[in-house]
Amino acid sequence: MPSSTPDVLPWQLRAAFARRLSDLYGREVPAYTTLLEVAHEVNAEVVAAHGAEAERLGSLERVTAERHGAIRLGTPQELAEVGAVFAAMGMHPVGFYDLRDAAPSPVPVVSTAFRPVAAGELARNPFRVFTSLLVPGDRRFFDADLQARLEAFLATRELFPPDLLDLAARAERDGGLDRAGAERLLELATAVFALSREPVDRAWYQELERVSGVAADIGGVRSTHVNHLTPRVLDIDALYARMAGRGIAMIDDIQGPPRWSGPDVLLRQTSFRALDEERPFRLPDGSVVPGALRVRFGEVEARGIALTPEGRARYDAAVAEVAALALPTAQERHEATVEAWRRTFPPTEAELFDQGLGYCEHVVVDGRVERRPIVYEDFLPQSAAGIFRSNLAEEGRSDASRAGLARDADWLAGVLGRELHDPFALYAAQQEASRARVDAVAAAGGDAPSARLRP
């Protein structure tokens, strides 16, 4: 155990890492800087127009600082190593997402999100990284020969240098680092996710791309990189329109729940389209020629209320209902989704909580108990796949008649060697802890008002 408090605590490492990645991504993808500028403009305008109500799901300070990143890895060892790096920053794996079953365009990855899990840590800095792992053994995507060659290729690379892993282990063990160690960890960790300029084997990359653009992005290069870094906005529809007005092409849809008159739930996401980035290519004869890849894009998100399992089941049913209509235009899809929402969800927050569909915190204000929404901190696999699909140069291919490879939350936890947190359990614990605090206050005054508010 350290003899004194470390100079730099995990949350400070997390905040500094998020800033450095944001600076890096802004240099590599200039349109991302425009996205940040527009997000900040929209957030300031929403707060000016609506005051405290605009900050009901997060203060302007928190929303301004908030980011989620996305990275893609190729092997279980790489996943375990990144888990160790994120643990040094107070980020833990939450949730299991299987994008291999996402319709209409499955992606050959399983994913988790590394993030803080305690409410206080989320308030300090809520940085999250959606982390996807390729599944080369899934026969719906890869035959045995391609699997063998892909796994052999991935086995030759080292993404996380030993010095970084040693510092991460020390930070996790000691609860932080001295200033020199923190600077070195941040320097090494940021460098891992910088876009490499090493020539890409064009034939190999294109072979993988015919299966999946995501597979090529992961297994077609000897490095990894930030795929997107996502700010949070208080009015995603206003941002969408404003970005288009600045001449930046956006994908066709805002993924997730619709804009409607009822409570905002879960997560809405959209992005500008992936841009051509210059990359050198190596040809079969060994020569190197200029080329371009489209794998990175600028995503933005708006967060709503965390839903209970029953609320989430209703959400999934509404999404499936609209998807089955196979409507051709974004406007038709939006109208159908709003109609489905009106049939599925109550029109007010109070009814959402009364029916046990959404999570809330109980707080005592001026002697009265109020319910405040708990923000959804996680992700939606269908929306993630939709964003991926909208930004791929190639649709890829899969054969649903073949058997998939079993991958689940228990398997992922075993790879990580860490607890894989259940997001529903985290929200429920936060809600119950708030009730316990209210009950303690009430008991001290001889009353138990929170009992009247139990769904």
Task: Describe this structure in a few short sentences.
The protein is built from 17 helices and 12 strands. The model is unreliable at 450-455 (pLDDT under 50).
Could you explain how this protein is built, in words?
- By secondary structure, this protein is α+β, with helices and mostly antiparallel strands.
- It has a single domain (10-453), classed as 2,3-Dihydroxybiphenyl 1,2-Dioxygenase, domain 1, CATH 3.10.180.80.
- It contains 17 helices and twelve strands.
- It has helices spanning 10-28, 30-50, 60-65, 76-87, 119-124, 144-155, 162-174, 179-192, 202-211, 213-219, 236-245, 309-325, 330-344, 349-354, 381-390, 409-416, 423-445; strands at residues 67-73, 92-98, 109-115, 128-134, 200-201, 228-231, 267-272, 277-282, 288-293, 298-303, 360-365, 368-373.
- A five-stranded mixed β-sheet has the order 2-3-4-1-6. It has a three-stranded mixed β-sheet with strand order 5-8-9. The chain has a two-stranded antiparallel ribbon with strand order 7-10.
- A hairpin with a 2-residue loop joins strand 11 and strand 12.
- The longest helix has 23 residues, at 423-445.
- The radius of gyration is 23 Å and the shape is globular.
- It starts with 9 loop residues before the first helix and ends in a 10-residue tail after the last helix.
- InterPro entries: HGLS, YdcJ_bac-like.
- Its EC number is 1.13.11.93.
- It comes from Aquipuribacter nitratireducens.
